[in-house]
Amino acid sequence: MGREMTEFSASGDPKRTLELLWGLQEPSSRGPKARFTVEDVTRVAIKLADAAGLAALSMRKVAEELGAGTMSLYTYVPGKAELLDLMVDAVVAETARPDDVPGGWRGRLEQIARENAAVYRRHPWLLQVATGRPPMGPNVIAKYDYELRALEGTGLTDVEMDQVLALVLGFVHSAMRGVIEAEQAARRSGQNDVQWWESYAPLLERIFDPERFPVAARVGSAAGEAYQAPTDPHAFEFGLARILDGVEALITSRR
């Protein structure tokens, strides 16, 4: 994963995309029987993206993995834009959606946040997909419906329910981008955070003036000692708790 490219969901042909997402396309009665299904194509595309990111994904590579000709792949999916929507809809179906979650609305939002974080861990390429216009597939809609129900009966308006969910999911997206980018930096550099800091610290001490930046010197030193890393490894839990504290204050005000 990286910041060098961003893909946009729902950027293909809307009619063909919805037909594929909802299984509405009619199989052709002409020609030989299809060797694959749309699900086969989607599964292979996810496998390739998981391994090497979206930059490495192409219709040609999906066809090669399937053992098919590139042009034959277009009989299943019109192009990469529609394929991306199928991939997003498929992976969001992985989030667990239990009916009984302890802890009321807060426990349910915590569970939702952690399930979304787990999906990003399994499929880091998902962080590269801008879903401001989400693919309106059955799994995306089912996930949205389930997650909204965590706030049902809290006294929030429908719009506030949507805004709270967007806030929580936006935090998860941002936090997991930081986590995964840090892990990738460690792999690419061959240094963990402690090793990276040990290589920088002696040089930084020569040029850093703590009297000029007293707050940064004090806080940075305390944080580094506590984390044993440049950033807080528990930042996800801290941030999630603070967001839910704010949601709790909003819900309390409605009562």
Fold blueprint:
Elements: E1 7-8, H1 14-21, H2 38-52, H3 59-66, H4 70-73, H5 80-92, H6 104-122, E2 129-130, H7 138-148, H8 158-189, H9 193-207, H10 214-227, H11 235-254
Parallel strand pairs: 1-2
Helix pairs in contact: 1-5, 2-3, 2-5, 5-7, 6-8, 8-11
Protein name: TetR family transcriptional regulator
Domain HTH tetR-type: 35-95
InterPro entries: Homeodomain-like_sf (IPR009057), HTH-type_TetR-like_transc_reg (IPR050109), HTH_TetR (IPR001647), Repressor_TetR_C (IPR004111), Tet_transcr_reg_TetR-rel_C_sf (IPR036271)
Properties at a glance:
255 residues; single chain; two-stranded parallel sheet; flat; mainly alpha; 62% helix
User: How many strand segments?
Assistant: 2
Please tell me how large the radius of gyration is: 23 Å
State the shape: flat
Number of helices: 11
Largest sheet: 2 strands, parallel
H/E order of the elements?
Answer: EHHHHHHEHHHHH
Mean pLDDT: 91
Strand share of the residues? under 5%
User: N-to-C terminal Cα separation, in Å?
Assistant: 44 Å
Sheet with most strands: strand arrangement: 1-2
Q: Which ranges are low-confidence, i.e. pLDDT below 50, for 5 or more consecutive residues?
A: none
**Which class best fits the helix and strand makeup?**
mainly alpha
**Fraction of helical residues:** 55-70%
